[in-house]
Amino acid sequence: MRAYLRGDKKVDSNLFSPTTRLESFVNVAKYGESWKNARELAVIWDDPRDIYAIILHFKSAQKSISKDDVKLQYWQDHWPRFRGAIGGGESGWGPIDDFYNGQWKDANFVMEADGDQWLFTFNPVNVEFPEFGDFNVKYRRTLKVRLASSKVLPEVESFEVYTNSVWRRTDVSIEWGCVDASEKVWDGTIEVFNGELVDVKPLKPVSRVEVLSENSWASKVKKDETDGVKIGVWYAHNNNAENYDKTIVTVRSKVRSFSFSMSDLERGELILIKDYDVLVSRSSDSVDLRSYVNELAEKGSATVYDLISRMPEQTLKRAQEELPAKKKGIHFIVSCKGRRQKFGIDTRGTVFCPKLWNVRDGVPEYSLRSKYAGRFLWDNDTITYTHVTGGLALRPLLC
User: Is the dihedral of CA 77, 81, 84, 88 positive or negative?
Assistant: First the structure.
């Protein structure tokens, strides 16, 4: 079998592996919540995933069921109509899909059967949505995916869902210290989300770390000493920064708990958590906690928190002088949810209510507002309330 996961380039189906293997595609089904019944198999995730292929393994070759008996469906609402970046800036105003609003969309798919295995891939999405023209990606971004059958499904061995992320492996050094106590107990565990933990070993040849299980250890560190663990991690690699297949490693200990992204380490970054006295790095970087802290000190480098603490106490005068000029006036909304009026407060502290904005006569989508036009009893457009000595001044304005 072959499938399309990288543009129009054919990819060997041997790269679809339910277990971790270098450069094979990531099966994200295991990182979601699965459910099944006699006629349905499904997976749901906390974050949307870009699904490129699905493989269904039966326990034996099937003749009692065929492609015509099944539908491959994904949960669809805003995507692909809205497909902008999510997570910062103007994207905060963009719609995102959720578990409850939307519908199951029948996918236009290709299925290849080979003995006890069915491989599903997608035709371009503009086959399902012709209105989106040349947006012809062969994946589906979704929170849920399911296979629905008109017949009772034969016994299933596995249901695998693949993105175009690939597996890579590296060793990570996690070093901790003790600078503010006579001794600290760093007993802890490792958790890996969207990835796989290979092993846990003491960080140093001479170490008091005792590995207790495949993901836990016991560690006591005396003042001014350091110790730690070296872990092997399979992580999901993807060149698309907007991809949700991020591998997150979490350390939980009696002293501190923290998480870090494997993407940061893959970019060659060193993660120093100064307040915790912790350094996370790729083992191949061969850097240790104390040397790195001293190096930063010699360079005069400082954390954002350090820089803030060095700043003089803020004053109103300095805040006003350093405030960037705005291209136009800004205001804050002052009202209740579901309101029929729009109030605002500008940078001078003036409260205002614009009649024309609230009424919008003749605009169909504002028919409800127009219904209350007769209740705005002042002349002109905007009425404002300005703070003056001795109270408020009522001053109608025409904008």
Answer: negative
pLDDT band at 375 (very low <50, low <70, confident <90, very high): confident
**pTM of the predicted protein model:** 0.77
> What is the per-residue DSSP string for 211-243?
EEETTEEE-EEETT-EEEEEEEEEEEE-S-TT-
Q: Which two tokens stand for residue 349?
A: 């502290």
Write the pLDDT tens digit of every residue in 44-102: 999 999 999 999 999 988 888 888 999 999 999 999 988 866 555 555 567 788 999 99
217, β-bridge pairs: 188, 211
Question: For the chain, what is the mean pLDDT?
Answer: 86
| Overall average pLDDT of the 248-263 stretch | 96
Please answer whether residues 383 and 397 qualify as being in contact, where contact means their C-beta atoms are separated by less than 8 angstroms: yes
Cα 302 from Cα 239, distance rounded (Å): 31
What distance in Å separates the CA atoms of residue 357 and residue 250, rounded to the nearest whole number?
50
Complete domains list, the chain, with CATH = 2-165 (2.60.120.260), 167-310 (no CATH), 331-397 (no CATH)
| Cβ-Cβ contacts under 8 Å for 364 (sequence gap 6 or more) | none
Collapsed DSSP state (helix, strand, coil) of residue 92: helix
How many CB atoms within 10 Å of residue 88? 7
How many C-beta atoms lie closer than 10 Å to residue 199's C-beta?
13
Q: Are strands 351-354 and 344-346 parallel, antiparallel or unpaired?
A: antiparallel
261 burial (CB, 10 Å; 0-12 / 13-18 / 19+) is middle
